[in-house]
Amino acid sequence: MSLLLPTCIIVCFSKGLICCNEPFNYRVNNGRVIGGSDAKPNTWKWQVSLQLDSYNEGSFGHICGGSIVDSFYILTAAHCIISSDVSQYRVAVGEYSLFEFDGSEQFTSVETIIVHPDWNGDLAKGNDIALLKLANPIYDNGYVEIANLPYADQMLPHGFTCYITGWGLMDYNGSVPDKLQEAPLDVVEHAVCSQPEWWGSIALKTMLCAGGDGVISGCQGDSGGPLNCLTDGVWRVHGVVSYGPAGVCNQPFKPTVFTRVSSFLHWMYSVMDQRLEIRQKSSVL
C-alpha cells in the first residue's frame, strides 16, 4: 500500500491522505465533514483554521485545521506544512463561517514552524505533528479557549465516541462548507485498525483510528484539526487528523486516522517550554 507524500496542494495519490487541499478562498455551499452538521457557534473554541497565501498576494485561504494549545502555540499536522516560508501562513481563531466576518475572529501570523524531528514525509511512519509559534499571543475575547489535552500515553477504548470538527470537503470532488462542521466518530482500537482489512501495518500505536462505518469521516481540509473526546468530564483533543483513504473519504473499514496526541505530549511540552523560556529571556534583555 502506497501512501501520499505531503506535497499537499491538490495532490492525492493512491491509498492515501486527507491532504491539505487548494486554499479554500472561494464561495461554495453544502460541503461538510462527511456525515456531519453545522456546529453550534462558540462551541469548539480551540478550533483553528490554518490559512495559506500561496502566491504572496495577501489573499489567504483555508488549508488545514488545528487546535489552540497555548496562547502562543497551535497544534496541527506536519503534512500541512507545505511551505517553509512563515510569511505565507496565518492562523484564524474564533472562526465559525469561513466566508463571513463574524466579529469573533482573530487573525495572527506565524513566527516559527516546529515540525516533529522524526517526521520524514511518510505517513506510514507516523510523527505527523507540528507546532506553530505565533507572532502575537491569542487573547481571550470570549470566543477562544486553550484545548485540554489527554494524559501521557492515554488510550481510548474501542467504540468510544468522539467528535471531529473542521471545514473539510464532503468528498474528493466535494464542496467546502462555510460554517464549522462536527460529526461523531467511534474509536477503532489499534488491535482492530491494524488488521489487514482495515489499515493494516500502517496503523501504528502512536495513531488513533476513528470511524470506518462508510458514512461519517474526515476529508480534505480537515487535516491537522482535532478529534475531541469527552474524558473525565472534560473535552480533550486526543487526535490530530493525519490521513484517510484517497478519493471518496468515507469508505468502510478505512477510518480517519489521527496522530495520537497522548503519544507526543513530552515533545510538545519540551518545545513549548523551551520557546517560552527563550521568549522570557528575550523580554528581560
Automatic annotation (TrEMBL):
InterPro entries: Peptidase_S1_Elastase_sf, Peptidase_S1_PA, Peptidase_S1_PA_chymotrypsin, Peptidase_S1A, Trypsin_dom, TRYPSIN_HIS, TRYPSIN_SER
GO molecular function, one term: serine-type endopeptidase activity
Protease listed as a keyword: yes
Pfam family, one: Trypsin
Residue ranges annotated for the Peptidase S1 domain, each copy included: 33-273
Database matches in SUPFAM superfamilies: Trypsin-like serine proteases
Signal peptide stretch: 1-19
Swiss-Prot/TrEMBL keywords: Disulfide bond, Hydrolase, Protease, Serine protease, Signal, Zymogen
GO cellular component: extracellular space
GO biological process: proteolysis
Alphabetical list of SMART domains matching this protein: Tryp_SPc
PROSITE patterns: TRYPSIN_DOM, TRYPSIN_HIS, TRYPSIN_SER
Protein name, UniProt field: Chymotrypsin-like elastase family member 2A
Highest classification ranks of the organism: Eukaryota, Metazoa, Chordata, Craniata, Vertebrata
